[in-house]
Structure formats: structure tokens, C-alpha cells
Amino acid sequence: MVATARELATAVRAGELDPVALTERTLHGIDAANRVVGAFRKVRAEEALSEAREVAKRPDLADLPLAGVPVAVKDVAEISGEYAGWGSSAMPTEVSTTDAEVVRRLRAAGAVIVGLTRVPELCIWPMSDGPDGMARNPWHPAHTAGGSSGGSAAAVAAGLVPVAHGTDGLGSIRLPAAMCGLVGIKPGADLLAEGGWYGMSAHGSLATTVTDAALMLSVLAGKPELAEVGQERPLRVAVSSDLPLTHAPVPKPLTAAVDHVADVLARLGHQVERATPQYGTAATLGILGRWFAGPAEQAEDLERARLQRRTRAHVRLGKALRTARLIRPGTKTRWLARAERFFGEYDVLLTPTLATLPPKAERWHDRSWAANAIPSIRVAGFTGLWNLAGYPAMSVPAGRHPSGLPIGVQLVAAPGGESRLLRLAAQLERENPWPRTP
């Protein structure tokens, strides 16, 4: 899929491209590549073609922002006629009779939903694999595509679809976006809260360009103005590669990408200086507690024996934390006060997206909880605190590791700052362009 979502929608609206032919072409590409990248849990071939025929007949076709555009939806959203699998054989398989709100908005915008993308069980891990397959990084298939929106990232990075839906509870959009060389945005909790993990999770978008990510986000949020990515004024940008809690060293290629982007922003006229938020130990421990307790709450009605062993251990720990009433709102309140003070002085924070290089693509679901938890905690150190705060954050491609793996940087803004992040990312895309697909 070389064309962007905007280009495809423009061609469909103008009558230059038939939605059915576009969907057929997309399904052919998925059939050829999905067995390699493992992006999809379910490909909706017949359903997608039916949807494309309906889009072609719509009287408002010329006004649809995603007219005929093939999109992928993360396997956590309710879709009429499908079940949300959440990467688990313990989840009920009764099909839904309704669409989730974000799916209704995609359909209303003219999108064609070609499939449900792979996730790790209950979206706990930053590696998207299970007994039925694994999502691999299209740039470097020996590495994971990330998680929990790993299947969505793999589908976009492999060029199977131009845009995809994801959710982000502790970095689940930004981490796979960084690993797969994509633009991935998690909006603020006030815009697109997903409802899970004590309010930390939000719906968002993954794309190969900033304008496509903005277009997809505008549809998911029901806010057309988000699709208009204009020019940004000079901003106060704080730059930090100091890892919260552990202050462990971050691999040099990841920090070098941050330094390079900081230099680009300075050349563009932004006020750039080194500054680190007062993260605090309690806030970091607070997100770890919610990482345990959120899935434990979701698993209450599931048959525990059908969960993977890594998940059973995770859920046991989460249940103990919930029983002891250790998930306390004061943790978030105190962190929010520090974050607000920091963003009173700065407009945007620039950090690495990943704290380590991506894990390998392996059968992580067969391993112990500790074998999964250690690399998960290590790789996600920069992302989760902004879920606790409910602040918008995104990952933008910034370079390449000597191995060929993409490298991303994270941009964070105060609530309501989604458009600011998109405008700044668009500046970076113009000044520091990245390859869109392998």
C-alpha cells in the first residue's frame, strides 16, 4: 500500500478509484504477506468486500473523509458480527450485535474494515504473540512488532493498510509505532478514553505519515478539525533522556535520535533546552500497580485455567493489589500536580520512545511471567507516566539503528495539545523525513 489514506480517499471521492477494487487489492496484499508479519487475527474478506460495495453506493461518497479507505481495527473493539478476542482463548466468542463508538465513526466516515489485528493476551505485554501466531516487525522480522497494538503496527508498516486503530494503556500505540517506524498518537484522556486500566487507556491511530495519523484520529474522535495540520509557532521544548525511576542508561542510538531531533527543532526556531520532569518514585510504582490491577479486574469473569501462564501470574498479583486497596487515586493526583508545573514552563517534552531496543519475535506467551515482565518494564519506561496523567503523547520516526531497526522519539503535551503535537510532528516530517515502508 504505497498510497496514503488521504490520497486513496481523494481518489475514491473523485470517482477515480473504485472502493471494491481497492478492497480486493488490499485483501490480496494481506493474503500474500500476513503469514510473514502476522498482523491479523481475523481477516474480514467477504465482509470487507460487502462494506466496500455499500460505500460505493453511498450518496454522500464525495464528502466522506475515509471514503473507501481500508483500515485495520485492534482486536479489542466491538464490531457487529465479530467478537473481540483480546488475544485470549479465555474470552467469550459470542459475536457482537453492535459496533463500538470508534467503529461506528469509522464506518460513518466511509472506511472499510478489512480485519482485526493481533494483540497479546489482555493487552498486557509489549510483544504481540500467542498460540495462533505473532506480529513481526516488517523492517526486521526477527524482532517483535511491539504491543499491545503490535498487529496494527505490523499491518501499517508492511503496507497492508495505510492506517490502523490502536489503544494505548502504558505505551501500547507509541511502543509499536517506534519499533515499526510509524507515527502513533495517544490522545489525552479527555478526548478518546477507552475505559480500561483505571482510565489510563485511550484509542488512537497509527500511520506512516503525520497527516494520515491526524486524519484517522479526527475520525475516531469525531473532531474533523484535528485532520487539519497547520503551521506551528515557536514552542518551548524540553529535552530529556533521563529514564524515570531507575535512571538506567539508555542505548546510545536512542538518545542520539533525541539529540538529533532537538537540533532540528532548534534550527526551526523553537526554544530547546534540557529539562526533566520530577517523575518521582510513587508515580512510577503507581503505573506498575495499575498494570497489574487493570487486567486482574478484566479477568474476574474469565476462566483462569484458559489464560496463559504468564497472564495467570500477572492476574494473581493484580488481584492481591486490589484486595489490599493499593491502587490509590492520590498517586495520580500528586503526579498530575508535578506534570502541570512542568508544562507551565514548557509546551512540549521530547524523550526517547523506547528505553531499550525492541525484544526479539519469539514465543513469549510460552514463557514465565518474569521472563515477560522484565523486558516489558525495561522497554516501556518513558511512556506509561503520560497515561497516568492522561496527557496526549505520540511517537515520531527519527532515525535508524545500525541493525536496520527504526528509532522513534516521543513528544508529550499538556491536555488539549493533540493538534500542537501533530503540527510539531509535521514539521519534523518535512525537515527530517523517514521512509514510509520497507
UniProtKB/TrEMBL annotation:
Gene3D superfamilies: Amidase signature (AS) domain. Residues 22-422 form the Amidase domain. It comes from the Bacteria. Transmembrane segments: none annotated. InterPro entries: Amidase, Amidase_dom, AS_sf. Pfam families: Amidase (PF01425). PANTHER family: GLUTAMYL-TRNA(GLN) AMIDOTRANSFERASE SUBUNIT A, MITOCHONDRIAL, TRANSAMIDASE. This is Amidase. The lineage of its organism: Bacteria, Bacillati, Actinomycetota, Actinomycetes, Pseudonocardiales.
